[in-house]
Amino acid sequence: MAKKSDRIVYPTSDGEWANKRIGASKAGSLHDTQKGAELAAREMMEGVGGELTIVGRDHKIRSKDTIAPGNDPNPPKDREH
C-alpha cells in the first residue's frame, strides 16, 4: 500500500522528467534530466521517508528504493543502492 510520502519519477510526453507524489494530481517538479528529478524527489522525502520508484523512457520500472526512515518489511538482497 502506498504511503502519502511515496514518490515516482517518470518521463513526460514533453521530454521532461516529472517528480510526483503518488496520488497527487500533478507533478511536484519538472526537470530536464532523470537524475535531476530523482535528486529532487529524494530531497522532498528527506526526514519523511517512503518508497521512491523510478520509471524509464520505456515505461518500465528501473529502480525502487526505500528512503529512510521508511520501513521496508522485505529489504532487498541486492546491492543496487
Keywords:
five-stranded mixed beta sheet, alpha+beta, 15% helix, 81 residues
Instruction: Enumerate the strands of the largest sheet in spatial order, edge to edge or round the barrel.
Output: 3-2-1-4-5
Q: Please tell me the total number of domains.
A: 1
Strand residues, percent: 25-35%
Helix content: 10-25%
Shape: globular
Unreliable residue stretches: none
Rg (C-alpha, Å) = 12 Å
Spatial gap, N to C terminus? 22 Å
Overall residue-averaged pLDDT value? 88
Number of helices: 1
Please identify the structural class as seen in this structure: alpha+beta
Largest sheet: 5 strands, mixed
The total strand number stands at 5
- Spell the H/E element sequence: EEEHEE
What is the compact description of this entry?
With 81 residues, the protein is α+β, with helices and mostly antiparallel strands. It has one domain.
Task: Write up what this structure looks like.
By secondary structure, this protein is an alpha+beta fold. It has one domain (7-67). The protein is built from one helix and five strands, in the order βββαββ. The chain has a five-stranded mixed sheet, covered by helices on one side. A hairpin with a 7-residue loop joins strand 2 (17-21) and strand 3. The longest helix has 12 residues, at 34-45. The model has no long low-confidence stretch (mean pLDDT 88).
Which helices and strands appear, and what pairs or packs with what?
Blueprint: E1 7-11, E2 17-21, E3 29-31, H1 34-45, E4 50-55, E5 61-67
Parallel strand pairs: 1-4
Antiparallel strand pairs: 1-2, 2-3, 4-5
